[in-house]
Amino acid sequence: MSPPKPSVEPLVQVEDLHAYYGKSHILHGVSLSVGRGEVVGLLGRNGVGKSTTLKSIIGLVAARQGRVLFDGRAVTGVPAHKLARIGIAYVPEDRRIFHLLTVIENLRTGLDRDGVSESRRRQLLDKAYAYFPVLAERRNQPGGTLSGGEQQMLAIARAMMLEPKIILLDEPTEGLMPRMVSQIRQIIDVLHRDGVAILLVEQNVPLTLEASQRVYFMEKGEVRHQAVASELDVNDPVIHQFLGI
Amino acid sequence: MTIPWDLFAIQTVNGIVTGMILALVASGLTLIFGILNVVNFAHGELFMLGAYVGVLVLATTGSFWLALVAATIIVALLGAALQIVTLRPLVGRDPMTTILATFGISLVLQNYALWQFGPVARKIQEPITGHFTLFYLDYPWYRLMIALLSAAIIGGFWLFLKYGKYGIWIRATTQDRVMAEAMGIPVPWVHTAVFAIGAGMAAASGVLFGPLVGVDHAMGLPWVLKAFIVVVVGGMGNLGGSIAAAIFISLLEAYASIWVSPSQAVIVSFVVLILTLLFRPTGLFVPTPK
Amino acid sequence: MTERHSTVFWSGFAVILALLIAAPLVLPPFWGRFLTEILIWGLLAMSSDILIGYTGMISFGHSAFFGLGIYGTAAALLLVDPPNLFLAILFGLVASGLVAVVVAYFSTRLRDIYFAITTLIFSQIFYVVIFTWTSVTGGENGLAFTRPGLGIPGLYVVRFTAETMHWFVLAVVAGSYLLLRRITQSPFGTVLQSIRENEARTRAIGYHVEHYKIVSVMISGLFAGLAGVLYALQNQFAAPDFVFFLVSGETVIFNVMGGIGTLVGPIVGAGFFLLLREALSRFFTEYYLIPVGIIFIAMVIFMPQGLLGFMRRWLNR
Known about the structure:
The complex is a heterotrimer of chains A (245), B (290) and C (317).
Chain A: E1 12-21, E2 24-34, E3 39-43, H1 50-57, E4 63-70, E5 73-74, H2 80-86, E6 88-91, H3 103-111, H4 118-131, H5 133-137, H6 148-160, E7 166-170, H7 178-193, E8 197-201, H8 205-211, E9 214-219, E10 222-228, H9 237-243
Chain B: H1 5-36, H2 43-61, H3 64-87, H4 95-117, E1 131-134, E2 137-140, H5 141-163, H6 165-175, H7 177-182, H8 187-209, H9 220-234, H10 239-256, H11 262-279
Antiparallel strand pairs in B: 1-2
Chain C: H1 3-26, H2 29-55, H3 62-79, H4 85-107, H5 112-132, H6 134-137, E1 143-144, E2 150-152, E3 156-158, H7 162-185, H8 187-197, H9 199-205, H10 209-235, E4 237-238, H11 245-258, H12 264-284, H13 289-302, H14 306-315
Antiparallel strand pairs in C: 1-4, 2-3
Helix pairs in contact in C: 1-2, 1-7, 2-7, 2-10, 2-11, 2-12, 3-4, 3-5, 3-10, 4-10, 7-10, 8-9, 8-10, 11-12, 11-14, 12-14
């Protein structure tokens, strides 16, 4: 049974994307889409180009060929700082919070945007503290002093401050303890409830299948298969094929 | 050899005064290097142009303070324009190209000044005359004022970095340019702004220093060399280090000029640089990396 | 190198050489001397290309090598009587060689921008010393001396004429070019270029990068000193201005304008710059550096391969 096609225009549409790292041809024509408010998983072995796909969407890696559409508009080649302001947020694989800025200063990098009133900023900040109480405790501490799990919280909270329509999440549970992993799982659900779309790159298959509506499978720089998440379980042959577990 | 203590004390004061101006010049340079990764060879010329703008504004308005503010703003804008036109196209290329480009800019600006203002040095009148007695000398109040003003400007900038929204932008861009962009910070404009700020600092130094020497087209050269030494000794991109290094080197030179001529005293700064590069290449005032 | 490539090169070389030999006989004296100057600066720029173009080490210190080559020659011609050509060359090379040794030492411990700044500081150290040590170096006023004769002192000496001086310079520069070319095309030269491309990888493969850098600086410094010797012989005058780092800056301009890493490019760049200066100073008098500087910046941005690179691409269309 083929996966349901979104009846409205997808939020993000990637068409035949080719991208390079220097001379290496990493993406060989990636095509995928993410609907409004949808959680979509991106699975595959290490090195197939999952992170590069996310980076291409946020404009940190240039597309040599193909295009990216956001909200119906072509955004290929638009610089990252503009995309962040129209609703695409990126949480990278190694978190990359600003180590020498305090927690609240980290959050402010997303809060200090034009057209956001002081009261709205206050609201967003309170929301971040509500979702991640540990950040409220550590608000004046430099980001570099936080633990790995706390930094991951901060990275996600920081992205939320942009009030994005979609968050590109790259391996959020990597290196985290099980307790933190389930916290991340909850956050994804909460964001989904809030109507934020998520494109989730993960090695943790069970979590991805639980949290997502659809999943794509990548191999050698291309999307090879997509499926409805609820129709798959961990032992499905498709999983074995694309992840070699 | 008897140590002339009072001369020593006077030179200490002189050293600190020159050191503070050098710190202001070097701050701009190290900022530009730390954030844009650009070695700004034209920094001395921005200093020089600031002094000239100061001369012109002073001549028309008679106000030193207006001259200081005008020079800072005008040269900052010039700096922004230069960065946009010549340095933005070079982003991502070999860092050598920016050295060459800024070297070219320094040649053009220097000769432009020579063309427009001629070879005869101009003078800026100090805003406060008057001396106080320092040991056996009549020491000009103005010199103390320079030191205080330089400190104030550097201090003001430090506060701006620490507390303002744009300060956060600059600090975030310094730490992780890519992630700053992903957070919506307009990094290319941050770069332009930082270059402009650096240029403005150089210009302010030029106006402040103007009354002490003559203003001429070549005045920037010795300053840019010394500023480079300060930046390397203080640790590239390290604001606090540059300030410490500036005062350190200026004091040493001031003491040296008790015994040798000032033009020979500059060798002191060269020696400090060489020793730093040999033994503590990351900077004298920077904790050694593990 | 293929057979055809080789014949093309040698025939081209022969043609240009012939033109340069004939030049002083055909051109008015001003232009004849101008051409000789281009050759001398070209040699300086070539020497700099070894560092910048082939080893990837940008240096602002060539004025130190060049200037000390000039003063070394001056020393020989003023201290030894009768003035001896070979002694002059020897002194010049030794002086610049000593500087090269010191710079070479630093080159192994510093990279990129730190190396560039240090070489600049070196030029300035020498500048200050020469400028202030008036008793020995004549300070600001410099030193004037007479040209030695060509030949073996004591046996047969003949005075240089403008033409023979030109041919002498041409012989030295052409010979230097061929020698440098041999060096850059040898295995040694290939390693240098590999260091320029990726120093870490070259080291990882097993090459002792420090040794190669030292030799590279020595070669560069000696040929720069040789240019200084020629300059001293041509102009019979030494001044601190030549040690000022601005000379290094101009050398780098020649390299970039002509095309780095080509050996010939820098000579072309020197010629181009000097011609530009001649032409523009007719209109702009002393302010020729304003338009020249702007052209230079434009070339850095739009023509980073230099004139030679640009022509090469244009010819390959």
